């Protein structure tokens, strides 16, 4: 299987980066590497595996992010990741939520680098697709650059060479998950130094990046950039990723074209029993910064949840934007 290009990727985001959202993102960028929401090993082993693993073929390149710390369970899930056709499997060592800590996965694993190395090795032995790690620069009293470097070095002994680094610490006590995405200061230089001093490793930077211009600056220092919330809240910036960051020359589709391209998928999903708001909630930011954007959001928010809501909700919302554009042009 061809190695995925990690020069630009969209972060795994709980409750956000589901298969409907990823299908929408893929219309915007053909090349960006997309990640699933984090899926726990327990959910795959004991739950509805097909629901957690299914995706649309158009989503490739696509990585599965796992949460867990049991080597045998992670190995089994890595096997399933390959069998289902994912392009990469990623181990979450960065999520700071209480639920994650009680389950012994996520950011708390940074305190146990050898366990993480054992988990990564078990996954590598079980599958032939790339195994990568996403982590923070530290947790709680783990405050030095060297401690982060030692964490990476321990895992790198397995042959794992791709590390996605959220350039903030995680405080496991005292801060909520939302605060952990905003309060701890960003330390981009730590990530740059990691790349400088370990040039053979593939280092991807994550955290607080809110424009393609900023992404381009980071790419002068590291191998790849991962965007999270900005890609969700202002998804149209993904439309220029292929051209600006990945060297492709295809034309950039308009917001209207993207929404029209999505319509057949929405119709197909509605026919299969999917509620419109399960898809439309991901589209609210499509027209951000454009006249009529507020009307677009409001119409979808007020109508997509209603029983029997159909594709006409999106058509009407689009019409409101086009009317505003015509009004301002006249």
UniProtKB/TrEMBL annotation:
Residues the record lists as binding FMN: 12-14, 65, 134, 166, 206-208, 228-229
Catalytic-site annotation from UniProt: 95
DUS-like FMN-binding domain: residues covered: 10-316
Keyword Iron-sulfur applies: no
Gene3D superfamilies (UniProt xref): 1.20.120.1460, Aldolase class I (3.20.20.70)
Catalytic activity as recorded in UniProt: 5,6-dihydrouridine(20) in tRNA + NADP(+) = uridine(20) in tRNA + NADPH + H(+); 5,6-dihydrouridine(20) in tRNA + NAD(+) = uridine(20) in tRNA + NADH + H(+); 5,6-dihydrouridine(20a) in tRNA + NAD(+) = uridine(20a) in tRNA + NADH + H(+); 5,6-dihydrouridine(20a) in tRNA + NADP(+) = uridine(20a) in tRNA + NADPH + H(+)
Site (Interacts with tRNA): 92, 178, 181, 294, 297
Cofactor(s) listed: FMN
Protein keywords: Flavoprotein, FMN, NADP, Oxidoreductase, RNA-binding, tRNA processing, tRNA-binding
Cross-referenced PROSITE patterns: UPF0034
Domain of life: Bacteria
Pfam families xref list: Dus (PF01207)
This enzyme's EC code(s): 1.3.1.91
Database matches in InterPro entries: Aldolase_TIM (IPR013785), DUS-like_FMN-bd (IPR035587), DUS_fam (IPR001269), DusA (IPR004653), tRNA_hU_synthase_CS (IPR018517)
Function of the protein: Catalyzes the synthesis of 5,6-dihydrouridine (D), a modified base found in the D-loop of most tRNAs, via the reduction of the C5-C6 double bond in target uridines. Specifically modifies U20 and U20a in tRNAs.
Similarity comment: Belongs to the Dus family. DusA subfamily.
Name used for this protein in its record: tRNA-dihydrouridine(20/20a) synthase
């Amino acid at each position: 299987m061809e190695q995925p290009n990690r020069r630009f990727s969209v972060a795994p985001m709980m409750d956000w980066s589901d298969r409907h959202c990823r299908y929408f993102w893929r219309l915007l960028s053909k090349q960006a590497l997309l990640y699933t929401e984090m899926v726990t090993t327990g959910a795959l082993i004991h739950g509805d595996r097909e629901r957690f693993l299914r995706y649309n073929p158009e989503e490739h390149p696509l990585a599965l992010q796992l949460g867990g710390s049991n080597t045998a369970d992670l190995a089994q899930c890595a096997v399933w990741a390959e069998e289902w056709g994912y392009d990469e499997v990623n181990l979450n060592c960065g999520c700071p939520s209480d639920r994650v800590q009680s389950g012994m996965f996520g950011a708390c694993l940074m305190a146990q680098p050898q366990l993480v190395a054992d988990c990564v090795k078990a996954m590598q032995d079980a599958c032939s697709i790339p195994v990568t790690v996403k982590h923070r620069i530290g947790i709680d009293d783990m405050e030095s650059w060297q401690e982060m470097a030692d964490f990476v070095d321990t895992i790198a002994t397995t042959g794992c060479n791709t590390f996605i680094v959220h350039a903030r610490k995680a405080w496991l006590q005292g801060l909520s998950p939302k605060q952990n995405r905003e309060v701890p200061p960003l330390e981009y230089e730590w990530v740059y130094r990691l790349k400088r001093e370990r040039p053979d490793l593939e280092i991807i930077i994550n955290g607080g990046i809110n424009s393609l211009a900023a992404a381009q600056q980071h790419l002068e220092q590291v191998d790849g950039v991962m965007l999270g919330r900005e890609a969700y809240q202002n998804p149209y910036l993904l439309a220029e990723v292929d051209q600006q960051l990945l060297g492709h020359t295809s034309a950039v589709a308009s917001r209207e074209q993207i929404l029209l391209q999505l319509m057949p998928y929405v119709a197909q999903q509605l026919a299969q029993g999917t509620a419109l708001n399960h898809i439309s909630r991901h589209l609210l930011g499509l027209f951000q910064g454009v006249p009529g954007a507020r009307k677009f959001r409001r119409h979808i928010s007020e109508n997509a949840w209603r029983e029997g809501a159909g594709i006409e909700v999106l058509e009407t919302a689009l019409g409101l934007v086009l009317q505003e554009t015509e009004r301002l042009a006249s």
